[in-house]
Amino acid sequence: MHDNTYLFVLSDHGIKPLREFEEDPHMHMDHGGTTPVIAKHDFADGDDVPGSFIAMGPDIKHDVRLMGFQATVFDVAPTILRLYGISAPGQMKGRVLTEIFEDGKTERVAGNGQN
Known about the structure:
- The protein is an alpha+beta fold.
- It has one domain (about 5-100).
- About 10% of the residues lie in helices and about 15% in strands.
- The protein contains two helices and six strands.
- A hairpin with a 4-residue loop joins strand 3 (about 30) and strand 4.
């Protein structure tokens, strides 16, 4: 990965492994009984679904794991806009994920090498 490259990986929703799969991998099958179902997403509250978010790049904290970090898929666009020095429009959902950046580095403009 180049020194000026950002990488974001996220899931749109969380998926829990089925405990039953460990006990009997053939208990839950899909696609005409040919594929075992090893995970599901059946959360009662669809607005509070755990997921994954990974970020790498200049001025992003290294080797830090933020557990219980509150973020949504709506936060990705405002965060990327901030990297380019662009303010998010008022009607845009989400917020800048300031927690992922090294202290004081959220004003970086991507691609120009300036902080």
